[in-house]
């Protein structure tokens, strides 16, 4: 049994990952901002306060063999570049330093493909991909965090950053929640001709990938590095809506409108970024992670997207 400190456990990914780690028999410690933040009963809770350059992790790290660092400042209304830097960059630096001093052997950091790419990219993103373009405050802070995790990999320690694309599941927020609501609306949608390719990862597949790293032989963990993970298949917007509606026991309800016209309409409405997210390509090459850790996603994209939609409707009706 391994004692693992998990940060960000109250988030979307954390809730799914904790169950998986418990199933695997690990001893789990949860770092929280307040005593009320632990909703997972099978773990010790250690209150550390906010994440930043002065956080004291000593008590939370006591006796831990591994750290899984999920906590991050994500984009949102009112979030400043300074917030990203404080939490994602300086906060991660502080945690990696204290984890090394505490004797932790493995540090796993959940990063993002946005560390090196915009919300669309002409070439696949991998763990070897360097920054493309000027970047943005969120992505640059995650890229800086990756560098701190890389510095952890010395003297027999393993520091691993996992770049994930959009993570989805029935209770995901943000863009995935909007897509599920759009699919559930039953409205005819003009996406039948959209054949872009985007990589996603189901939250259960991501939890499985992280658990695979934790359960891997020490020689694999010590390799360290930056890796990208994703579902096995890339999907188009047309496929995505179709599979969501399949999970909702509905017909696809799609009709064809030229993709160029959709881009023009969204651009005219000041939604160019939305157009790139919906219609652009953003594929992930996870081959190096799969080879290094002998991993394959347990769910296909179609299975996971249909299951997400089915559960979404079920929970919405309760």
Mean pLDDT: 93
User: How large is the radius of gyration?
Assistant: 20 Å
Number of strands: 9
Overall body shape? globular
Give me the side-by-side strand order of the main sheet: 3-2-1-4-5-6-9
Which regions have little confidence, pLDDT < 50, spanning 5+ residues?
none
Percent helix: 40-55%
Q: So how many helices?
A: 12
Structural class: alpha/beta
Q: Which strand-content bin applies to the residues?
A: 5-15%
Give a short account of the largest sheet: 7 strands, parallel
SSE string, helices as H and strands as E: EHEEHEHEHEEHEHHEHHHHH
The CA-CA distance between the termini, in Å, is 38 Å
How would you describe this protein?
The protein is 42% helix and 14% strand. 43% of the residues are buried. α1 (12-23) packs across α6. It is α/β, with parallel strands linked by helices. The two termini are 38 Å apart. It is built from twelve helices and nine strands. It has a seven-stranded parallel beta sheet, sandwiched between helices. The protein has a two-stranded parallel sheet with strand order 7-8.
Compose a concise summary of this entry.
The chain has 12 helices and 9 strands.
Write the layout of secondary structure elements.
Layout: E1 3-7, H1 12-23, E2 27-32, E3 44-47, H2 58-61, E4 66-69, H3 81-101, E5 106-112, H4 137-152, E6 158-164, E7 166-168, H5 174-184, E8 200-202, H6 203-215, H7 218-221, E9 225-228, H8 237-247, H9 259-268, H10 272-279, H11 287-293, H12 301-317
Parallel strand pairs: 1-2, 1-4, 2-3, 4-5, 5-6, 6-9, 7-8
């Amino acid at each position: 049994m391994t004692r693992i400190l998990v940060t960000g456990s109250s988030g979307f990914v954390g809730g799914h990952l904790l169950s998986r780690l418990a199933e695997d028999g690990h001893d789990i410690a949860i770092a929280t901002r307040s005593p009320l933040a632990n909703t997972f009963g099978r773990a010790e809770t250690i209150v550390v306060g906010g994440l930043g350059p002065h956080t004291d992790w000593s008590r939370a790290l006591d006796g831990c063999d591994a750290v899984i660092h999920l906590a991050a400042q994500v984009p949102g209304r009112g979030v400043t570049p300074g917030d990203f830097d404080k939490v994602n960059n300086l906060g991660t630096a502080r945690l990696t330093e204290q984890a090394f001093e505490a004797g932790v052997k493995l540090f796993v950091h959940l990063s993002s493909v946005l560390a090196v790419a915009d919300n669309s990219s002409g070439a696949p993103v991998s763990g070897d991909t360097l920054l493309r373009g000027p970047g943005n405050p969120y992505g640059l802070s995650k890229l800086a965090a990756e560098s701190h995790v890389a510095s952890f990999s010395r003297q027999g320690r393993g520091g691993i950053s996992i770049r994930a694309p959009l993570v989805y599941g029935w209770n995901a927020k943000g863009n995935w929640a909007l897509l599920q609501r759009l699919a559930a609306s039953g409205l005819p949608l003009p996406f039948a001709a959209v054949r872009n390719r985007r990589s996603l990862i189901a939250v259960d597949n991501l939890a499985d990938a992280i658990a695979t790293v934790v359960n891997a032989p020490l020689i694999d963990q010590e390799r360290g590095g930056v890796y990208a993970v994703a579902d096995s298949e890339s999907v188009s917007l047309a496929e995505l809506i179709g599979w969501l509606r399949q999970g909702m026991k509905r017909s696809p309800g799609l009709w064809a409108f030229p993709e160029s016209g959709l881009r023009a309409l969204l651009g005219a409405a000041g939604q160019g970024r939305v157009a790139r997210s919906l219609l652009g390509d953003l594929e992930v090459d996870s081959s190096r992670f799969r080879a290094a850790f002998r991993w394959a996603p347990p769910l296909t994209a179609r299975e996971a997207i249909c299951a997400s939609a089915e559960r979404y409707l079920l929970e919405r009706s309760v």
